Amino acid sequence: MTTTTDPWPLPRVVVAAPASGHGKTTIATGLLAALRRRGLMVSPHKVGPDYIDPGYHALAAGRPGRNLDPFLVGAERIAGLLRHGASVPTPADIAVVEGVMGLHDGAVGRRDYASTAHVARLIEAPVLLVLDTTAQGRSAAALTLGMAAFDRAVRIGGVILNRVGSPRHETLLRDALAEVGVPVLGAVTRAAEVAAPARHLGLVPVAERAPESLAIVTALAELVEATVDLDAVLDLARTAAPLTAPAWDPVTAVGGPAGVERPVVALAGGPAFTFSYAETAELLTAAGADVVTVDPLRDPALPAGTRALVIGGGFPEAYAQALAGNATLRAELADFDGPIVAECAGLLYLGRSLDGVPMCGRLDLTARMTGRLTLGYREAVAVTDSPVARAGEPVRGHEFHRTTTDPGHGDRPAWRWDDTPHGFVSGRVHASYLHTHWAGQPDAARRLVEACR
Questions:
Q1: pLDDT above 90 for 16
Q2: What are phi and psi of 217, to 5 degrees?
Q3: pLDDT in tens, 21-51
């Protein structure tokens, strides 16, 4: 039996594209669901800091969707995190990794660092390129050839043609790609497309539309079954070299439990707070916490015995009235004396109001929607000691929001980046717009559990 340190010949494939909008999520989600319908255990992964696509992946695969982001967690952890995700709760038969943006698009100013190509190299996986062939003929082959030649260390093992206009169009495309020696593993017509609903930050999360989301995933599985050569995809995935990196282990990452007592740590969930990495709960559990979920839309109180609270990102602006209507929980949070860590949506929820609708009032700020999207990776430094960071410590994170707060930061800011203070530290509350991945800073989980005492 293979252990977490033996070489593991895990079949795996990276679903990439020349740019955003070519159909990566459609194909990746459909592949996950179609392979699962074949009886395979499929491990879903997403390059980058995305929270929404992994929700669809999880629904399709029946296990948590996980992120592989070198910027947030360090390139040295990527292969180990892949192996961990593909091993939990049971070993997978295949891993499908959806890329981010264009194949070679990395963090701004860092060439291809944290790009899909970078991750494909780190996990030694072949790439399945999705091409939007709208208004494109033989040039699709030239584009594919250029994508492959740009980095010879990245192996494009096949192409899926998307938005094909007609049988004649498909024949033209297949003939052109045969000229450059790249196999076509599938062709999806424009009429067959299946789309998930979107809004200001991308697709609507699965948790907000569970029945409709399940119907979409089922339709995507049927689409891929009808248009993609699944046997060829499996054959391509099996060409990946054995994984030699040991599996990432949350217990090792946090140094084991932070004491004998097991404090209850609540994680906000439900439709309004869907942004959370699977490793957050795993690290808190490994650090000695009993992790429970609270839905601020529906639960009138924190779970019994809660000693700390983590409120991640999501869409509170879409649920402001319902959140305001849960007055008993808002009142409890206003007086809760345990440590609270809030990111983005959590920051807005803890303020006095959001678009004029009352929130918890724990932080002296107001928030509102704007027409401006703020997004990107951030290299921050902790400004103030808090339950998750010590002043002077560096951390990497990302922003992704269309809201703003007044004031923009507190007298005791949480972070500083670009020579500007950000966020709020107030008593035992740490809140900001910065999303972090605790696999890259596991001490945060241990400190939070220790702060419960």
A1: yes
A2: -65, -40
A3: 999 999 999 999 999 999 999 999 999 998 8
| CATH architecture of the domain with range 12-239 | 3-Layer(aba) Sandwich (3.40)
Give dist(CA 94, CA 32) in Å, integer. 9
Average pLDDT over residues 99-120: 95
* Cross-strand bridge partners of residue 46: 67, 98
Q: Where are the domains of the chain?
A: 12-239, 250-451
Distances (CA, A) of 449 to 21, 103, 180, 242, 276: 41, 39, 56, 36, 18
Please give the CATH topology (third level) of the domain spanning 250-451.
Rossmann fold (3.40.50)
H or E element that contains 448 = helix 443-451
Q: Measured in whole angstroms, how far is the alpha carbon of residue 54 from the centre of its chain?
A: 5
> 24-37 vs 52-61: helix axis angle to the nearest 10?
20
The Cα 183–Cα 187 span in angstroms is 11
The SS3 call for residue 428 is: coil
Q: Residue 193 has what pLDDT? A: 63
- For the record, the structure tokens of 348 come out as 């807005």
312 three-class SS: coil
Do residues 105 and 115 make contact, with C-beta atoms less than 8 angstroms apart?
yes
Residues annotated as catalytic (active site), given as ranges? 344
pTM reported for the whole predicted model: 0.94
Complete DSSP assignment for 90-127:
S--SEEEEE--SSTT--STTSTTTTSHHHHHHHTT--E
Burial annotation 10-19 (CB, 10 A radius, 16+ → b, else e)? bbbbbbbbbe
**What does the pLDDT look like over 194-245, one tens digit per residue?**
765 554 444 666 655 667 788 889 989 999 999 999 999 999 999 999 999 9
Tens of pLDDT, residues 266-281? 999 999 999 999 999 9
Q: Do domains 12-239 and 250-451 have the same CATH topology?
A: yes
